[in-house]
Amino acid sequence: MQVDLFDFELPSERIALRPAAPRDAARMLVVEGSGLRDAIVRDLPQCLRPGDCLVFNDTRVIPAQLEGTRGEARIGATLHKREGPRRWRAFIRNAKRLREGDAIDFGADVSATASDRAADGSFALDFAGDEPVELLLERAGRMPLPPYIAAKRPTDERDADDYQTMFAREAGAVAAPTAALHFTPDLLASLDAAGIGHATLTLHVGAGTFLPVKAEDTDDHAMHAEWGRIDAATADRLNAVHAAGGRVIAVGTTSLRLIESAAGEDGVIRPFEGDTAIFITPGYRFRGIDGLMTNFHLPRSTLFMLVSALMGLETMQAAYAHAIAGGYRFYSYGDASLLLP
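Now predict its structure.
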């Protein structure tokens, strides 16, 4: 499909620079079939049915943004995928000043050697020393806010909490599964009381999620792989939800992509551990999920293509036009949509 079909105009003032407070006070656009309804996130128990199950991503964002030097050159690195115990694949700013074999000093006694430059311009970074890389990043790294926020304000101490979900447990993501940022313990208790269950899986979100689609046709776009895991108990739980007539509602496109990667043509969700580079565009037949809660996405992005595949392009164009006209806040710290085909 032509990528231009997924373009739209978004006024810059619609981009949220801070999350709603409290988190579950964010607005939520309910898209059910082709109908639209305005709500807020804490209305979620009334928007779902007893027996439904929300699926959260329990990945934890690491301080994956690094600033360093190679000689006199300033080098920026955004880690996006672990490739070994001490090796991470990284997107590099000022990459023309970096060669394979060069060492980068990130300060705080943290350094890494660049190697294995890929076609997309990324490098592998091998971190020096014996300390766990996670400890090195805590010293030298900072929270990797999305570029559309980082371009408007610096990262600060609030982001260390604001950019983690209440489910964050498994360290390894360089971007938050932002739909789950809206959840609070009180909201989860209300959902439980309404008979709506929840489960967790792990998908370590990569910085590739922010990359624009530069191809003119979706067939020519290459997705970056991300590592994920659904254990046997979770797979069994989700299959039991379906067997009992409930719906599996992914919270975030990360949860959706992993469930769909694990689901077979027969609709059965199986245990999964490994990389997925699934790319969902209109025409895709969903096998594992029955709905999605997600934030509002970038024009021409793979994520807007995904929601269009779920609900239909015309429906999502109408939903986004409604959201823009109605003052909804967009992107990672913005408002939510609940998509029920």
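The mean pLDDT is 95.
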